[in-house]
Amino acid sequence: MSFSPQVQAQELLEKRISIRVTNQPLDNVLRQIENLGGFSFSYNPDILEIKSRVSVNAANQSVREILNELFKGKVIFRERHRYIILLKNTKKEEGNPLNFNLNGYIINKKTGEKLANASIYEPVTLASTISNQYGYYRIRLPTTPSSVRLEVRKDQYIGKSVVISNRKNTYLPILLNPDTLKALSFRKLNIITKSDTLNSPKIEIPQFEYTTTTYVSSDTIIETDSLRFQSKLRTTYQRVRKDFSSAFASAKQAINTKNITDTLYRPVQSSILPFISTNRELSGNVVNDFSFNVFAGYSLGTNKLEIGGLFNADRGHVKGVQLAGIGNFVGNNVTGFQYASALNVVMGNVRGLQYSTLLNFTAGNFKGVQWAGIGNVMLGDLRGWQISGAYNFARTVKSGHQFSVVNYADSSATASIGIFNYIRKNGYRRYEISTDEFNYFNTTFKTGMSSFYNVFTLGFNWKIANKPFGSIGYGFGTAVKLGRGWMFNADITANAVALDKVSLKSHNAAGLFRLTTGIERKTGKRFSVAFGPSLNLLTGNELGTSYDTRKLLSTFWLGGKPDHTKKNYGWIGFQFAVRFRDRM
Questions:
Q1: Cα separations in angstroms, 156 against 55, 136, 177, 418, 529
Q2: pLDDT tens across 108-125, in order?
Q3: Distance CA 362, CA 386 (A)
Q4: In which region does residue 523 sit, left (phi positive, over 0), alpha (psi from -120 to 50) or beta (all else)?
Q5: Which of the listed residues 16, 345, 374, 474 has the most CB atoms within 10 Å of its CB?
Q6: Which secondary-structure segment (H or E) carries 335?
Q7: Distance (Å, whole) CA 548 – CA 439
């Protein structure tokens, strides 16, 4: 209920009327304005010179503008319900006032339209305001230092600097020219990391510097790919990157970051929440050397150190050290050390060490060490190490290694180290069907890089007499190209062997350790054959195994033939395989 009269009163001063009078008494002019605006004035005739003669020529102007023209700052206006109260400005000028007020409208110079959501600020004290829905603004400024400069910015309009020489309460309309070139492209965020002095921060207005809004560059983030997954990933990245600056900002901060492309600098800032900061509503446009956030903070960037009790959010770059109790969110690049107990998100490149006890995400390139308790995701090029407890994802591994349980890379110049490694473009992959002296039928999948890959294998004998029921195994391997379609590989696997269905149900399995070597020969675009000897050790088997009746896969026992007196014995066997392979 208390908000409604304010909204109604605001509309009274913003009502547009047209009036033209010449040399008429003030009270007659006020009555005409009342009739045209549909409201009433309330005033004391003794404090206003109501019989003084005035002239007004206003075409489609707001009541506020007309009253300012009539009274020249000698009368102040207050709204109450359907009344506009006129009071004489009795405030005496102080000898050395500390502050003064500016108010007025932000106006399109070409059309005369009042511009809502324009940013008005003073770059030294960071005093700021935003024009309301009617284009009206009011800002309180200090009378010192000697030079006060008001900056006005509006998206799609050319920025304007206004030097304030008369430090008194003043009605000051400001005209802005439309930025006609902005329709052709978009401005690039131009971040300055240092200023000459605190009282003279560098400010740049890139009125005629244009580029694309997307941070992605052809050599940094996601390359063109026909796969639907890559397309969705790229679209999602661009949408998140575009909306990043407003994700942690208040409504006023979001408007300022949209309007203002200038960079402000402060040596130190502190905040309780993103919208409660020593940098006030301009925090999203300020680069700080040191930033201390009790719960969460929001800024354009950090040069040396940022500490957040819960979250840190930077639209631009971070250099030095960034520490957060829960998460760090950075819109561009990070150089240095970044730590969060839960999540690090960087929409640009990282150079240094990124550590999180849970997850790390980097949208650009990475040079250094990305270390997480659970997982790392990196959409650019890796030159360094990805280390995590569960999974790593990288677009391209240029140098260094991935080390985790599961590793994925679009392409890689080095081997990934983990239980499951998958390199999409230039990786080593084989699906193999084989037979050997131990199992009549084996199916095997190999994935990773040729220098180091994972082996997953499953073997069966069904109900063949004196043969194990089956086996399942895992291991590692390496392969070397010999040229002209030939390749040599060596695999080491550990297998659990079920001697029969009874042992399978009781989980009483023997162990088979197997070193298999093979010579592979290409026989087509996707097929190859392989053959070679193997060295085997079977443990925990009291029954032994029978001779293989196939002459080409004869068994050569090491340390004697199996009998019922031994549990461990070895042999040299042989394997023949047909392989379905990738394009390598």
A1: 37, 18, 9, 52, 66
A2: 998 988 999 999 998 888
A3: 11
A4: alpha
A5: 345
A6: strand 334-340
A7: 10
**Do 252 and 394 touch, CB atoms closer than 8 A?**
no
CA nearest to 73, candidates 64, 84, 85, 60? 64
Structure tokens of 294? 């009790």
Owner of token pair 């990282």: 350
10 Å CB burial of residue 17 (0-12, 13-18, 19+) is middle
| Rounded-to-integer distance, Cα 343 and Cα 326, Å | 6
Q: What CA–CA distance (Å, rounded) separates 549 from 465? A: 11
**Burial status of residue 94 (CB atoms within 10 A of its CB: 0-12, 13-18, 19 or more):** exposed
- Over residues 291-310, the mean pLDDT reads 94
Decide: pTM greater than 0.90: no
Q: Name 178's Cβ contacts closer than 8 Å, sequence gap at least 6.
A: 108, 109, 110, 156, 157, 158
Cα 248 to Cα 266: distance, rounded to the nearest angstrom: 20
CA distances from 427 to 156, 488, 505, 530 (A): 49, 16, 37, 19
Residue 252: its H or E element:
helix 251-259
Q: How many residues does the chain have?
A: 584
Tokens read off for 461? 């004998």
Alpha-carbon gap, residue 251 to 270, rounded angstroms: 20
**Residue 98, number of CB atoms within 10 A of its CB:** 9
Q: Residue 552 in 3-state DSSP? A: helix
| Better pLDDT: 224 or 562 | 562
Q: Three-class SS of residue 158?
A: coil
Tokens 């009125």 appear where? 207
Q: For residue 486, list its beta bridge partners.
A: 483, 521
Dist. CA 533–CA 515, nearest whole Å: 9
Residue 342: is it exposed, middle or buried by C-beta count within 10 angstroms (0-12/13-18/19+)?
A: middle
Instruction: Give the residue with greater pLDDT, 482 vs 510.
Output: 482
Q: CA distances (Å), 466 to each of 181, 439, 508, 509, in order?
A: 84, 11, 17, 16
* pLDDT at residue 245, rounded to an integer: 54
